[in-house]
Amino acid sequence: MINPQMIKKIQKMQEDLKKAQAEINASTFYGQAGGSVVKVAVKGTKEVISIDIKKDEVDIEDLEMLQDLIVVALNDAFKRVDKELEETIGSLTQGMKMPGMF
Question: Fewer CB atoms near the end CB (10 Å): N or C, the chain?
Fold first, then answer.
């Protein structure tokens, strides 16, 4: 037998998850590398918004180092998005495993 209360709880959880996902997608997350020599901003959708490089602290001749710093900064920002998603969804689902969410 289907419990109507359980269905209502699941529907509310779905609404809360959609709302939380929309809020995270609209948020901006920041990452950095090299002691903030490279800073990046990404949306919760992992769309890159900006990359800021302190040119006076970077050797423009060393492109490999600059590329590495950009990659590290982006990965830092992406990890922050993932952490926020995990924490938010985890609090809404109260530890329930949600297949396909991660």
Answer: N
- Close Cβ partners of 21 (under 8 Å, ≥ 6 residues apart): 85
The answer to whether 37 and 25 have CB atoms below 8 angstroms apart is: no
Q: Full-prediction pTM beyond 0.85?
A: no
Pairing of strands 28-33, 38-43: antiparallel
**Per-residue pLDDT in tens (0 to 9) along the chain, 102 residues:** 678 888 888 888 889 999 999 999 999 999 999 999 999 999 999 999 999 999 999 888 899 999 999 999 999 999 999 999 989 888 877 756 555 554
Structure tokens at 84: 């926020």
Edge to edge, the sheet with strand 48-53 lists: 28-33, 38-43, 48-53
Domain architecture of the chain: domains with CATH: 28-93 (3.30.1310.10)
Phi, psi dihedral angles at 91 (to 5 degrees): -70, -30
Is the CB of residue 88 less than 8 Å from the CB of residue 80? no
